[in-house]
Write a structure and sequence with these properties.
Order of helices and strands: HHHEHHEEHH
Radius of gyration: 15 Å
Number of strands: 3
Strand order of the largest sheet: 1-3-2
Largest sheet: 3 strands, antiparallel
Distance between the termini: 19 Å
Helix content: 40-55%
Number of domains: 1
């Protein structure tokens, strides 16, 4: 299961729409490692002169790796986080998370990061089974 959804939140979802704030709170509580990585990269990007930061540190365990995969592979979770923080998240391999300002989505750096070439150049034998 991707998220630990409280009965109250599930009931609310069954009745209609859930706010982004409620959804993001559920993500934060359900995927604490992913939340820490993503918010850490966002904070680093906010302090960087070019507004870019990425995390290349592999997760300490498969459980943490699974959290990152669930957070970034889900359109709803990733989109909710992007709207909440006002950024664009990018993901390579099974752990490399980058954050871009929305204004950078059309930049050379963003296009290079999300390109086929960028993915291929970011490969290594150590990441084969990640």
């Amino acid at each position: 299961m991707s998220l630990d959804v409280s009965p109250a939140l599930l009931e609310k979802a069954e009745r209609g729409e859930v706010s982004d704030a409620e959804f993001v709170a559920c993500v934060r509580e359900s995927l604490p490692y992913a939340w820490t990585v993503i918010t850490g990269v966002i904070a680093e990007a906010e302090g960087a002169s070019d507004g870019f930061a990425d995390n290349e540190t592999p997760p300490p365990s498969e459980a943490e790796r699974g959290q990152l995969l669930r957070a970034l592979a889900s359109d709803a979770i990733r989109g909710g986080l992007e709207r909440h923080f006002g950024v664009k998240l990018a993901f390579q391999n099974c752990h490399r998370v980058a954050v871009f300002k929305r204004s950078q989505v059309d930049s050379d750096r963003y296009r290079a990061f999300v390109s086929v070439r960028g993915q291929l150049l970011n490969q290594s034998p150590e990441l084969r089974d990640c």
